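batch job 7 of whatever, protein = 4927_t:CDS:1
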Amino acid sequence: MATGDPFFAVKEEVEQNVTNAEALFQSWTRIYIEFDPARFNLSSKDVESRKSFVEVTRHRIQDIRLTLSEPPAQSRKNAKNQRQELFEGGRQIFSIDDYSSRSRSEEVELDNTRFIENEAFQQTILVQEQDEQLDSLYGTARNIHAIATTMGAEIEDQNILLDDFGHRLDSAQSRIDRSMRKLIYIIKKNE
């Protein structure tokens, strides 16, 4: 493993990009269920049920936040005002309740519209992020291909050099063998 070997750096980058792409794909699948429920064996009633659950949960959390954000003294003051209004005139309170229920339904409808717009916006962002991740992954794969091609060419060059070296070594060995035989012949003749 050479210190200048780019394979391991590229491998780590590719693994990270694949992990990101898988996470984005799972997120996309979750959002896609809403737009094509039949593909996931869900009825429109199931999707509406899920949306309703999310909306109810969102309102419950908003109510909790409102309760927690009001200081205790202020909420006692509000409770005192509400009791006083009840004793002063029940009819007026009833008509306010009618009005608040209408505004509540309008508020729910507005919240639903905002939720749908928000989900569509988030889906658009996710699709853009997925496109960027896939482009990055494609670029990384192209880089790996280029590196592999370069490495293959270098290996072929090294094989050619090794073959040439092997032929030269064989030739030198043959000359050495001939020279050794001549030396042995000369030594035997001079003895």
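notes: The chain has one domain: 7-190.
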